[in-house]
Write a structure and sequence with these properties.
Layout lengths: L2 H13 L11 E2 L2 E2 H16 L6 H17 L8 H17 L1
Antiparallel strand pairs: 1-2
Helix pairs in contact: 1-2, 1-4, 2-3, 2-4, 3-4
């Protein structure tokens, strides 16, 4: 997995709008709609910048990815693709960390 693959996924994610059907601050399944996005993106940004995640942050990213995977079906159907991209970013970051 190359850093350009992670960079491309993150750029594509930022280019897309936040799903209007999602209520900010609301939990969907096991995750907060906004925080899961911000947390995963932040850890991925650290990895993309060339820094290693601490063991604690790697564990947190793994847990966030697991919780998001379990929660995607709780999001409105038109928002699920957005969160599938967030999950893909988490997996790409984990593969590089």
């Amino acid at each position: 997995m190359s850093s350009s693959e992670l960079a491309d996924a993150m750029t594509e994610h930022l280019a897309g709008p936040f799903p209007q059907s999602v209520t900010k601050g609301e939990d969907y399944g096991e995750v907060d709609a906004v925080m899961i996005d911000a947390d995963i993106y932040g850890w991925a940004q650290t990895v993309l910048g060339g820094s290693a995640l601490s063991p604690l942050d790697r564990t947190r990213l793994q847990l966030a990815a697991e919780e998001l995977k379990q929660s995607i079906s709780a999001f409105p159907s038109d928002a699920q693709g957005y969160y599938e991209r967030v999950l893909a970013i988490a997996h790409l970051a984990l593969a590089r960390s």
